Structures are given as C-alpha cells and as structure tokens.
Amino acid sequence: MSDLAAVPPSPAEDAPSPAPVTMELQELGAYAAAGLAALAALAPLAIGVAWWDAGASGWLLAAAAVLFAGIVPRLSGGLGALVAATATAALAAALLLAVHHDGVGGRIGLGFYLAFAATWAASWMLVQRLTDLSGGSDWRGRVIDAAIPFVFGAFLFLAWEAICVGFGVPMVLLPAPSQIVTRFFASLPILGDDFVQTVVRAVIPGWAIGSTAGFLVAILADRHPFLGRGLMPLGNFVSALPMVGIAPIMVMWFGFDWQSKAAVVVINTFFPMLVNTVAGLSASGRMERDLMRSWNASWARTLISLRLPAAMPHIFAALKLNSTFALIGAIVAEFFGTPIVGMGFRISTEVGRMGLDMVWAEIVMAAITGSALYAILAFVERRVTFWHPSNRGR
Amino acid sequence: MTTEPAAPSFFARAVGRALGGSLLPVAMVIVALLALWYGAAVLLNAPFARSMAADPAALGLSELIDATLSQERPVLPAPHQVLWELKKSVFDLPVTSKRSLVLHGWVTLSSTLVGFGLGALLGLLLAIGIVHVKSLEKSLMFWIVSSQTVPILAVAPIVIVVLGAIGVTGLVPKAIISAYLCFFPVTIGMVKGLTSPDRLHVDLMRTWDATPAQTFWRLRAPASVPFLFTSLEVAIAASLVGAIVGELPTGAQAGLGARLLAGSYYGQTIQIWAALFAAAALAASMVGLVGLIERLVLAAMGGRR
Amino acid sequence: MLGGSNVASAGGTEASDATSPHRVVIDAKELDLVFDTADGRVHALANVDLTVREGEFVSFIGPSGCGKTTLLRVIADLEQATGGSITVGGVSPADARAARLYGYVFQAAALLPWRNVLDNVTLPLEIFGVSKEERLERAARNLDLVNLTGFEKKFPWQLSGGMQQRASIARALAYDPQLLLMDEPFGALDEIVRDKLNVQLLKLWAETAKTVIFVTHSIPEAVFLSTKIVVMSPRPGRIIDVIECDLPRDRTLEIRESSRFLEIAHRVREGLRAGHSYDD
C-alpha cells in the first residue's frame, strides 16, 4: 500500500482550485455598493417621488451606504460577512419598501436603477465573501454553505419583485412574487383540493405501483437471464421515449378521473425503475460475488445479503427521478381532460382565463410537493445507503 | 509487446453482439408483446363489436375477431391498423397535407433541435462556470438541482401563453421549454465530466504549472467527452418531450403533440397511436444518432477506455 | 519525543556534507505538516530535516502513513508544509514548480487515455510552449532512452503496465528537469518486471546524471537503487534513519546476493522495526 492514505480524501480538490476573488475586488464591490446606494439616495426614486418620501427606505439606503463604505471593507472573517449581510438586507428592504410605495410602480426613475445596481453589487460581494469563508466541516461551515445559495436565491426573488412592481409589469405577463404568495394563501382550500386530487390520488399510488412493478420485473429479469436479455434493450429504448404521450390513451381507457392519471404515472415510473434496478444489481463487485459463490450462497441469499444493498443507490436514484416524473405525468395527463379539480386542470383553465397568479400559485404548490418528495427520499436514502462514499463524512 | 487482434469494424461487432447476445431474446419478447397486444385488442374492442352486430348471439368467433380488429375508432387499435395509418400519413399523403405526419413530425423536430441546441449550450456554459468559479458552484448548484424537483412541464403553458401575449408564437416558446428540460442533464453530466480526471492527472498538470486554460483543454475537456454524450442522449429525449408538451396548451395547429390532442378530442385512437409511434421513432433515431456520433468520436479518441 | 530520530537524521546529512562536493538540491529544515481532516488532525510530517545533493539517488522508505509520499509532494509543491523551511534547487518549491525544475512520476502511469504514447510524452512540452520540431525531437530521444521507440502511435491501453510506466518516465524526462521525483513508480508491477525496470532506471540515471528521489516500500529495491536511504516512520511521519548506500555505482541484479547489500538491507530493516515498535 502507498501512504497516500495520509493525504486527506477530499473530492473537492479534484475541481480546479479556483483563484479566490481577491480582497481588493471585494472591497471594490463594497465601495461600489456604497457609492451606488449614496447616488441612488440623491436621485429621484420615481417621477415626483424622492426616496425620503417612501417610508424608511431613504434611511435604510443611507445606513447601507455608511456600512458598506465605512465598516465592510475594514472587517474580514465571519463578523465582516455578518455586517455585509446586514447592509445587503438593508438595501434589499429599502428597494422593496420603495417599489411598493404609492405612486412608484410603473413610474420609476434613476434612483431605482442605481439602488438596484447597488443591491446587485452587494449581493455579489456577499456571495464572494461567504464563498471564501466556506469549506469548514463544522456547524459554521454548514451554515455558510446553506447561506450562499440562500443569498443567491433571495437576490433572484428580490429582482423579480422589484422589476415586476417597479416597471408595473401586467399580471398576465408575469405576476410579482408578492402577488403569487397572496394568491397562494388566499386559495389554500382550492389548492388543497387540487393537491388531494393530483398528488394523493394519482401521483403517490401511481408512483408506488409503478416503482414496485419496475423493481419486481427487474428482479425477475435478473432471475431469468433470457428474459433479462430480451427485456433490457426494450426497457432502455422505452425509457428514452416521450412517455407522456400515452396520456390521451389512458384518459380514454380509464376515464377523466384520477384513475387515468395514476395509470400514466405507473407507466412513467415503471421503466426508469426497471432500468436502474437492473443496473444496480450488477453494481456489486466481482470479488464479493465470487466470495458468496465460494460459500455456496443461493441466488436469493446473494440477492438479499449483497446485491440488493449494493443496488440501493441506483434504486433510490430511480425513486427520486420517479417522484418528479410522477408529478409531471399526472399534471400533463390532466391537460387531456379531468373532472373540475386537479393541479393540471387548474393550470390549463387559469392560463386560459389569464389568471396567471393562480397558475403560479399552483406551480408553487407543485414545487413544494416535488421538493418535499425529493427531500423525504433523500433523507431515507442517506439512512439506507450511509455506507456509500457520497454519504460519508456527513 | 502486447499484441491486439485487429479490431473488427463497429458494424461487424454490433451484428455479432446482437446474434450472440440479445437478438433472439429481444425478438421473443417483441413477439410476445405483439401477441399480447392482439389479444388485448380483441378483448377490449369486443363489447363494441357485439353491440354493433345485428344478432350478438349469432356472432362467430372468427367474425368477432375480424370485427374487433377493423373498427374505425377502436378502444385499442391493432398493430396493423397503427402501421397502416403510419404508412398512410407518412408516405401516401403529400407533405403539405394537414394530416401528414411528416409535416407534424418536422414541426416538432425543428423546435426539439433548436431547444436542444440552446439547452445543451446553456448547460455546457453553466458547467464550465461551476467547475471554475467556486462561488458559482456554491450558489448555483442548489438551485439547479432544486429546479428539477419542480415539475417543469407545469410551467409549459405559462411560457406558451406569456410569450404568446407579447406576440412570440410558434417555434420559439416550444424551443424554450425544450431548452429548459435539456440544460439540467447537460450541466450535471458536464460538472461530473469536467471533474472526472483522476487526482493523479490533476496533480500532473500542477507539476507542470499548467494554466487553468491548458488544464481545461488538454485534460478536463477530453476527459468529459463520454459524460457529454451520455448527458446529450438524455437531453435530446427530454427536449422532444418538451416540444410535444409545449404543443398541448394552445391546442397548437401543428406538431405531434397537436396530433395527440386532436386525436383525443375526436376519439381518433388510431391517429393517437400513430402519432405516438412517430414520436417514439423520432426519439429513438435522435438518441441513436447521438449514440453513433459518440462511438465515432470515442473511437477517434483512442478507442477502448 | 523526536530527539533520537533527529540525531540520526542530522548525523546522516552531516556525513554526506563531509563526503559530497556536489550542490545541494533539496534542503529541508524542521518541516512540519498537519492535515485537518473530518476525522481530526493528522500529523503527516514532524520535524523533518533532509539534504539531497546533486546527482544523488535518494530513496524514502517506510510503512503506509509514514509521510514518505507527503514529503515528496511537499518537495513538488503539491502540498504545503505548515512549519519549517524547504528549498528546492535553491528556491521555494512553488518557484521550483513554476521553473519546471522537477519531473514527477506517479505510482500509476497516469497517461491520458485519449493521447497516444508520442502525444503523451510531448504533452508537457506543449504546455511549456515548445515548438513542434523540438517536441518531436525530444520525445524521440526520451522514448529511445526508455526503449519505447516504435510504440509512438500506440494508445496507453495497448501497452503493458511496465511499458506504460516507462512512457510516463519518458514524459517526466521530456523537458530535461534536473530533479526526478518518483512516487512508488513500480509499486503496481510484478517483481520480474520491476527488477528489469530497476536495472533500466539505474542505467538511465547513469546516462542522464539526474538527481532522483524515489519513494518505495521495498527494502531490496531501495538498497539496489539508492546512494542514500531515508527510513521513515508513521504517527507522526518522521525520519528515523538516513543510511548511506555505498555499493559500487555500476550495479547488476547479482549484487543483491553480496554481503554488503545484505548488511545495508539489514540496517534498513532494523530501522523500520524500531519505528514500528509501539504498534501493529
């Protein structure tokens, strides 16, 4: 054995170590944010509206400018990042308060653009700072690792809100996040009904049946190699086909209600599971399998003790993939006809009525559902495949 | 020295593999599926055939089977009916005909390819950025992965309607949906591919003090080629799905998705199946083409790896 | 805790100071290297003193985890020491790397699979911006040196393990570095091939007059090849003995049966055993 073992295994080192953005560049970012914020405060927010008219936003802008110019460039480390985050949040709050002030939407002026640019510079600088601080394996490192995508996402949503409200984008084109959230909470009963119809009745049973069937057929194909050799090329072929296309046929066969959607989901989830399980069953090492043979272990015993555990990462990959496929399959199948309830039904009818805020609320619902399914599966996966290299050291 | 037998050509190997390996089992499975299909067609279509017969009781078995396999709007069309419809709408009708599958296939194919090109390019650029800029990796990866837990196709109607509202219709909105579906597998695959070189190889480049650009072009890019093709195969299939679904919400006039929708409105089951098979053939030939290019490129890059 | 070992290593370096008139290529003083890993801190190198002179063939030998590869990687600037000082060719390891002062040979050949032998050997020259004619000329010379002429157009998978490793040595020599760093280059090969390559390596060393640092865990290999053997021990990684290997320079495999060879091998083994006394 070599003593390479003394070198800490760190997959991250396989990536080219990107040159950290130098401190000077970050300082430049902070000063740019400060300068832009200060200039913004002097420029008109909108036609006939100054920043000082729009609630506290003038003060927030000024405070952010002072923090960015006076403190952020001088402080490094965690404290510096915290101050930078505070200042960025102040900028964001100023921008949000300002665009929602009466008489601003649709009439924004130079001050808005400058403040928006300031927020962009500040967010960019904050992400860089946090990135330089990241990499620790303790709780602090984990908080920073979670904070970076949060800052990035928060800026995206802020930009969406500020642009939609600031420019007065009509709702039929793109509703602002605030409008979507309002609609979401106002329509909870409808969304709940749609959720039950689409997710509880169609997605979850269909996903369970399709995945189980795919798994069982994979085991069968493994037991009978002739069947496997005949089935696998077809399985690989079919899993590349646009399977949502069978939706109209299922609607014809099983009617408009959830049964046809569940059938679409079953077919959509069957093949990915089949293909992945078969791939997973050959994931165990040659030596380990020979070892089982040397102990004269039966096919079933080898399957249970060696090959299924080794296949688990593949099986979970299929389950996760399938959770998305199932949701997509059910929603698209509803485009082909439903009773007057369901997420896909709501999306297609509200699009027709230009009720875009409701469509987006439904998408939020779908996103929450998809993420939740994924998170649950990822959680279970980490418990089951704790031994896998990708899960070690967590 | 190691002597290697002259490598047989790609086709010779493919044929040999098919004969020795899976051709027979695959043929058997296909035959079994066809038999199953005919049986199911007879069973599913029998009630309607009986109701049509003057005297259901007097209907003989062979007459019943005949009747079930030749209906105009069967519950399940028989394979030969679908094939006949395919032949008619692909070869017999002029390409300009509204019922020509060549026309509809081309409409879908063109937006699939444009979307595929855009999505693959976007995915590639994102992957290069993520591999080289740490703050991009830290901030973007989470959102890229999350974007896939959202059932993207639910967004399709919005893209179509919103772009339609500002006067953009036809190919572009569908291509955007395709691109959205495409970029993810390419980004994920290429991030994996570009970081796939062994630590040894990366260290080797360091001992030569190679620049990031030199490391990229001489090590990372060539090493990522197999990953690129694997993700492109997934992406082009996803792109086709995007194009088809993009044709649904507006009740588009042309495209395979439109054929599916029209078929389902008017109960034209044979038309649905024909459109479905056309879509399958399209998907299979595109994936096959990418696979063929992959083999050629990998062979040009030194063959066995 | 390291008193004894320091005396031994210092004694070794002083002995070579007295006998060798050659320029110092590597000079390490009180090197320390601590890794922070998820499982805690690993003391990979502790208080390492080492001097290597021009033209020497120095072997690092020791059990897994003794830091011999880590020490080589510090010399190559692939790791950075957390304490002490080191110069390579009179400058810092980073400057030495930038000046391409050394060639590195890994345990695996690490040939790029999509490049044939010739293109693999010319790869570093491409990176240094050497003209095409010179690239080809140098590659031909170095492939001849490792007896691979005629295999230029073969891809790595068409070569045996020993040939792959010879190609990687030709690659390391392609830009004529004064120092050759070899990290268990023959560790993955069978003994017969290894013997053959050892003889070839000695011949190559005699022809090119390079300074070689060679990591191994084979005692016969270390004694057969080296002019100086550095014995290392793990937890923390440190030098416990430096042994002058004063066999004649034109060695053949038969020398391994000579009593002087066995004597040196015995001393190496004793050193390894001493370093191991408290565990395993």
Strand order, largest beta sheet of chain C: 5-6-7-3-8-9
Number of helices of chain A: 14
What is the name of the CATH topology of the largest domain in chain A?
MetI-like fold
Strand content of chain C: 15-25%
The CATH homologous superfamily of chain C is termed P-loop containing nucleotide triphosphate hydrolases
* Main sheet summary of chain A: none
Percent helix among the residues of chain A?
Answer: over 70%
- How big a fraction of the residues of chain A is strand? under 5%
End-to-end span of chain A in angstroms? 27 Å
The total of beta strands of chain C comes to 9
The major pleated sheet of chain C works out as: 6 strands, mixed
Q: What percent of residues of chain C adopt helix (DSSP H or I)?
A: 40-55%
Number of helical regions of chain C: 9
Produce the secondary structure layout.
The complex is a heterotrimer of chains A (394), B (305) and C (280).
Chain A: H1 23-42, H2 57-71, H3 77-99, H4 110-133, H5 139-166, H6 177-186, H7 188-223, H8 225-239, H9 247-254, H10 258-281, H11 286-294, H12 299-335, H13 343-352, H14 356-384
Chain B: H1 10-52, H2 61-68, H3 79-92, H4 101-132, H5 134-149, H6 156-165, H7 171-194, H8 199-207, H9 212-246, H10 256-266, H11 269-300
Helix pairs in contact in B: 1-2, 3-11, 4-5, 4-7, 4-9, 4-10, 6-7, 7-9, 9-11, 10-11
Chain C: H1 3-19, E1 24-37, E2 40-53, E3 57-61, H2 68-75, E4 83-88, H3 93-98, E5 102-105, H4 117-128, H5 132-145, H6 161-173, E6 179-183, H7 191-208, E7 211-216, H8 219-225, E8 228-233, E9 238-244, H9 259-276
Parallel strand pairs in C: 3-7, 3-8, 5-6, 6-7
Antiparallel strand pairs in C: 1-2, 1-4, 8-9
